[in-house]
Design goal:
The chain has four helices and seven strands, in the order E-H-E-H-E-E-H-E-E-E-H. The protein is of the alpha+beta class. It has a single domain, classed as Glutaredoxin, CATH 3.40.30. The strands form two sheets. A four-stranded mixed sheet has the order 2-1-3-4. It has a three-stranded antiparallel sheet with strand order 5-6-7.
């Protein structure tokens, strides 16, 4: 007996959500955030090409922080979340801060990974974090029971007949 092929459609596709947020002040964003935006877009294109055959849809959401929100929590700007988890958590990085520019008038977010500090988040780090998150989605999918909602027989780990 051959394996039954499951055709991918929107109902059985997993979603990898990448959310990036930054300060926009009077229609402007800082060069650091502008460069990160370009890197995030490159990473999303790569992830879409790589993960589509696995049935994983990649979605990019861009959020704008107001000046007031930024003043309350400046390190929320230039933050990348992958499936609601910060990028630095996926890759073992640390959040830092460094002086930025006149748009921000503040210290802004940096990410430290393996001794390197990034002001602009490179596509490679976003891709690495995205692939790690996608691995969890694939693992969750492969752990689903072939029995549907019926429990497996504990004696032989098979579905009831």
């Amino acid at each position: 007996m051959g394996k039954k092929k499951v055709k991918m459609n929107e109902t059985n596709r997993k979603t990898l959500k990448i959310r990036w947020q930054r300060l926009v002040n009077e229609g402007e964003t800082c060069p650091r955030c502008g460069s990160t935006e370009e890197e995030v877009e490159k990473a999303v294109l790569t992830l879409k090409k790589s993960l589509n055959p696995l049935g994983i849809k990649v979605v990019l959401e861009k959020n704008v922080l107001s000046v007031l929100e930024f003043k309350k929590e400046p390190l929320q700007s230039n933050q990348i979340l992958i499936n609601e988890r910060p990028l630095e958590d996926w890759i073992g990085g640390e959040v830092g801060e460094s002086p930025c520019c006149e748009v921000c008038n503040s210290d802004c977010r940096t990410i430290g990974v393996e001794g390197e500090v990034y002001k602009t988040i490179p596509a490679e780090l976003v891709i690495k974090a995205g692939l790690l998150a996608a691995t969890q989605l694939v693992e969750a999918k492969t752990k689903e029971s072939c029995c549907g909602t019926a429990p497996k027989d504990p004696k032989d780990n098979c579905c009831p007949k």
